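Working notes for the structural subgroup meeting. M.R. asked for a predicted model of this chain before we commit to crystallization trials. I am recording the input and output together here so anyone reviewing the notebook later can reproduce the run.

Input as submitted:
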Amino acid sequence: MKRVKRPDVKAGIWIDTDNAVVVKMEGETEAVISAVDSGIESRVRFPGEGKRFARFGSTFMSDEEKKERRLQLQLKRYYKRITSIISDADYLCIYGPGKRKLELQHFLEHNTGFHGKLMECENSGKVKPSLLLEKVKHFFEGPVFKSWRRSKRKEPGL
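Returned structure, recorded in token form:
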């Protein structure tokens, strides 16, 4: 019986602190575009907050560590939601304006099975989902990706 190889799944992500747009393409089928809201609180203000510190006797305490831990937990949840969408992707490219794309790249390479699947991580301003789709298609149909695929096929053991 002949084995049928499943088509490659390619994904592109545009990520920012507020939201992410994920484009998934599987073979020749229509691309699926998903939006992921980050849920990250940009400025947390507690009722009655006036100063950036609290005083207990002669000791001054800051709540910066608590806010930083909350931010790290929210980022981890955000990256896990994105990872759940692209879990079956064979190739991946990440775009975005700030440092979140690099943090996502680090998260994917160290916490999931995406090591070696990331093809590109590039700076990009705010883009509409339709323009992101075109950008992702252009990258995966371009000469850099095709030459990389050819070199991988020639390697023994693949």
